[in-house]
Write a structure and sequence with these properties.
Elements lengths: L1 E4 L2 E4 L4 E4 L1 H8 L16 H7 L5 E4 L5 H9 L6 E7 L5 H5 L13 H17 L6 H10 L8 H8 L6 H4 L22 H11 L4 E7 L11 H27 L3 E9 H4 L14 E3 L4 H16 L8 H8 L4 E4 L5 E4 H6 L6 H18 L6 H23 L6 H11 L3 E2 L1 H14 L7 H10 L3 E4 L7 E2 L14 E4 L11
Parallel strand pairs: 4-7, 4-8, 5-6, 6-7
Antiparallel strand pairs: 1-2, 2-3, 9-10, 11-14, 12-13, 12-14
Helix pairs in contact: 1-15, 5-6, 5-9, 5-10, 12-13, 15-16, 17-18
């Protein structure tokens, strides 16, 4: 017997409260993928190319699903699958900057470091692999203890110390490699080739995923030239090291699979003569409406009745949202679907939809609605606008530290569509007052366009707008009108 109550059901047979679909979404859907349950992960075809070792660079904007994919890969542990996340959240990057190999040119000086971290992580995973000869695992465990829970920064300090591995790799050590044993105290650089040989000699046919995550921690004000150059060189070396490692172990017929996750705006800053070749190994996370609908149908189905499989988008959407259109416009004379109304406020990122729908369900619970109403969707639109502004502020800040003042410039114009001249006139007032230091207006507008804060209106077709998130190859056109993204209107008090 099931008794229906406001916001929940009570199953008298099993004596437990059953949450309604609205309540489940309100409580369980999270912006941070790490906090969500694994059942929500939407496994689209691009993910399989990573698992199959076809792609190893995952590039995308904040909110496009990088962390969700990362979590999914890290959870791929099985009897012949091993994985480890190397998170650089709160990592002291200055420690990495000091670990160069001066034999190489600037953009290659950190390749040796990254290979060493990859190899050390593989050896650490080999210790847990019962298929590896126990005598080899015993020796490796002296270097990489199985229950070692130190933070990555402490591990890097330990692994790069002179004494590290001396009892195993040094003269008298029991673990043999192709190269000569090393001295008891020797720089970590000279251990890289020895450990590489050990992996080639003793590793089995299992899959080893080494995931590099949260590398944007040191992406701050890029106008700081010296630190910016070091940061870009560090990341460029990482991409080269991963490519090198894949080639080395492909020849040895071993599945050593490092994977790099990086924001697209940071990736765009990297310059290298071979960068174009990286495209063979790269995935760019891009979403369209159909893909978003499939993702939402999957998530809603997981909360509604997963045993029955994935519903169509229409079925899933009707389980959450009240049927009917939303009126809009100055006199509310126009209508559009509830999905389209939400979509126009987003930048077609999974995170945007998760935030909007979760907030709708929270309000519906307070209002004791069985389905999310059109009035609730409109009400949430203002709060979502503030969320979107905050998300963009976090992304743009390293490039334009005065982004809040730039937003105020746009707010002062009081229009969704405006010209370059209108923006320049208002912008220069702030420059003259000294509240905005960046004098290059074209740089500011290019940056706002690249983050889809603004778009262009086709000068030959009024009402046709171009935004970067919809047209990835587009660039800002100074000769066309500027259009502010609709999702920012309320947060900038433009109605």
């Amino acid at each position: 017997m099931v008794c229906y109550k406001v916001g929940c059901q009570f199953d008298f047979n099993n004596k437990k409260i059953i949450m309604t679909l609205i309540e489940t979404i309100a409580k369980n859907w999270k912006l941070e993928a790490k906090l969500e349950q694994g059942r929500y992960f939407y496994n689209y075809k691009e993910v399989q190319t990573i698992l199959d070792n076809e792609r190893c660079y995952v590039i995308g904007r904040k909110g496009t699903g990088k962390t969700a994919i990362c979590n999914y890969i890290v959870k791929q542990n099985a009897f012949n699958v091993f994985s480890e996340r190397l998170s650089f959240k709160n990592f002291p990057f200055n420690e990495l900057y000091s670990l160069t190999n001066v034999k190489f040119t600037a953009t290659n000086q950190y390749i040796t470091l990254w290979k060493y971290l990859i190899y050390s992580t593989v050896c650490k995973l080999m210790v847990t692999n019962q298929s590896i000869d126990h005598s080899v695992r015993d020796q490796l465990s002296k270097m990489y203890p199985q229950n070692d829970i130190k933070q990555l920064s402490r591990k890097v300090s330990e692994w790069t110390s002179l004494e590290f591995g001396a009892s195993v790799l040094g003269y008298g050590g029991n673990l043999k490699a192709e190269r000569q044993p090393i001295e008891k105290q020797i720089p970590w650089i000279d251990k890289v080739d020895v450990i590489e040989d050990i992996i080639i000699r003793y590793c089995d046919k299992s899959k080893y995923y080494i995931v590099f995550d949260e590398l944007d921690e040191d992406y701050r004000d890029i106008s700081n030239n010296e630190e910016s150059i070091q940061y870009k060189n560090l990341l460029t070396s990482l991409f080269k090291a991963v490519q090198d490692v894949k080639c080395i172990f492909a020849e040895a017929d071993l599945d050593i699979m490092p994977v790099v996750f990086l924001r697209d705006d940071i990736y765009a800053l990297l310059n290298d003569s071979d960068k174009n070749k990286w495209s063979d190994l790269k995935i760019e996370l891009e979403w369209n409406e159909e893909k978003i609908k499939s993702m939402l149908a999957y998530r809603i189905s997981q909360d509604n009745n997963p045993e029955k499989g994935v519903m169509s988008f229409t079925e899933a959407w009707d389980c959450v949202f009240k049927r009917g259109s939303i009126a809009y416009g100055n006199e509310q004379s126009k209508t559009m679907s509830t999905f389209d109304f939400i979509t126009r406020s987003t930048q077609l990122r999974p995170r945007d939809f998760i935030k909007y729908i979760q907030a709708c369900c929270e309000i519906s619970l307070e209002k004791k609605e069985k389905y999310v109403s059109q009035e609730t969707i409109k009400y949430v639109d203002r709060a979502f606008s503030n969320y979107l502004r905050n998300e963009i502020t976090d992304e743009v800040y390293p490039l334009i530290p005065e982004i809040d003042n730039v937003f105020q410039v746009i707010s002062n114009i009081r229009k969704q569509k405006f010209t370059f001249e209108e923006f320049s006139k208002e912008y220069l007032k702030y420059v003259e007052l000294g509240t905005i230091m960046q004098k290059n207006i074209n740089f500011v507008l290019d940056t706002l366009f690249n983050f889809s804060v603004i778009g262009n209106e086709n000068k030959y077709q009024t009402g046709r707008h171009y935004f970067k998130y919809l047209h990835t190859n587009m660039t800002y056109n100074i000769n066309e009108k500027i259009v502010l993204h609709r999702g920012l209107l309320k947060s900038l008090q433009i109605f």
